[in-house]
Design goal:
alpha/beta; six-stranded mixed beta sheet; 7 helices
């Protein structure tokens, strides 16, 4: 059975998700945003206390608030790290991103072990998940889909009653809207959406009520 633990990290109020199979304890972390020592300890303590085996670390997109915890997670638990190849230009300028947002000196973090594609299918225990290519907020963003469980982790593509901003590096509003309509709004209406910021929602709620996406 799938279990989801939500951590809200940094002054960006970024959602870091720890997803695991309750039986096997295999787990993945989506968008490691732990910034300070207290946040790193909170994530570490939960993993250790619940005897989780951190199998994967996944980055939906390479903006600073979603990757700032990568170095800690990789060095502490050594999961296999998956990230979007199309966002590597962004990942390479993580120190510049950090300075722009007033975070001081921040290192880039570990290189991905593998790049995400829409053909990538991974598993934790008996639970499979795959990826949807949803650029627009960033050039290479992917959402993480647990199809059988009807759960989608939408990064900064789709939020409750909102969508991702497109005024950052290489964002594009038309591309973002197309991603939402053609990759997310074709999912079942009762699919739960867990975004990179804010509270969860459903595909149906956003399809028929999101003011930023006209149907």
């Amino acid at each position: 059975m799938i279990k989801i633990k939500i951590f809200v990290f940094s002054y960006f109020a970024e959602n870091t998700y720890l997803v695991f199979d309750e039986v096997t304890k295999e787990a993945l972390v989506i968008d490691a945003g732990c910034f300070n020592d207290d946040e790193k300890k909170e994530l570490e303590d939960y993993i250790v206390k619940n005897e989780l085996k951190l199998k994967y670390m996944v980055t939906t997109h390479c903006h600073i608030d979603h990757v700032i915890g990568n170095e800690f997670v990789k060095s502490r638990f050594n999961p296999v790290y998956y990230a979007p190849e199309e966002d590597q230009k962004l990942y390479n300028i993580v120190p510049e991103q950090a300075r722009q947002f007033g975070l001081g000196d921040v290192e880039k973090g570990p290189e991905p072990d593998s790049f995400i594609t829409e053909d990538t299918v991974l598993s934790i225990g008996q639970i499979n998940f795959r990826f949807l290519f949803t650029p627009g907020h960033s050039p290479g963003e992917y959402c993480v889909l647990f199809e059988k469980e009807k759960i989608c982790f939408s990064g900064d593509v789709l939020f409750k009653q909102s969508i991702g901003r497109t005024d950052l590096w290489d964002g594009d509003s038309d591309t973002l809207i197309n991603s939402i309509k053609n990759k997310l709004f074709v999912l079942d209406d009762d699919t739960t959406v867990f975004p990179g910021h804010g509270e969860h929602t459903t595909i149906g709620y956003e399809k028929y009520g999101n003011p930023y996406v006209s149907n």
